[in-house]
Amino acid sequence: MCIFLARRLPLWALKHYILKVFIITFVALLFSVTENDYSEIFGEDYLNALLFYSENKGLIKAETNKYNVDIELVSAMIFPERIRYSVIQDFMETEFLSAIYTEQGSRMVDFSIGAFQMKPSFVEQLEKEVGNNPALQKKYPHLIIEAKSEVKERAFRINRLKNIRWQLRYVSVLYDILKFKFPLSEKSRDYKIKFYASAYNTGFTKTEQEIHENISRQFFPYGAEYKGQQFAYADVALYFFKNNYKPIFGQ
Prior knowledge:
The chain is mostly helical and 251 residues long. The chain has 13 helices and no strands.
């Protein structure tokens, strides 16, 4: 504020003006500190995740349209998994652990696999939910695996998990389950994205309160045991939606 203006203002108005400037400056600084730029934090990994979405946006659109699910919610809630996806690690784990799972099941070994890092136990839970819901059975008639033995059933499930199209179908199933279990019609768009992301990351079988509490927990990308700086999975999902969704999907 210039000296000329300060001389003309009454003392009470000058104090009010200074206080207003201080509040505006403080809020601006607060947001600049607390809002993380995840594209900068994760660097090349974030860029690779965006590249994957750009290359597969046609498939993502096709699968979400096929099952009439919300592409904004679905694409956002699984995006962070692409940040920590490693082609080499996925190949090594798939080749080594798939054989153990096929023979002995998820109680013996459970591991993340495929484009969106899904675990066999996660798919088993989805299949159980669909099996107990006639409406979902009708919508996803081929989801339930019918095989002559549990070993063949698990082998079939692993093959599906290696396929991007099938992983997108599993995400569509999850979307419908969450929509049925947790009506969020009165919640904001941002909250829905964070809630769905939290459910995908921490487990959709948890209660609504547990999923809500996990929204702010900072376990990404290395998991709860890691002691260094981490971030909230749901925050990363929302950041993608606000900053990168429209440039890729054009909606």
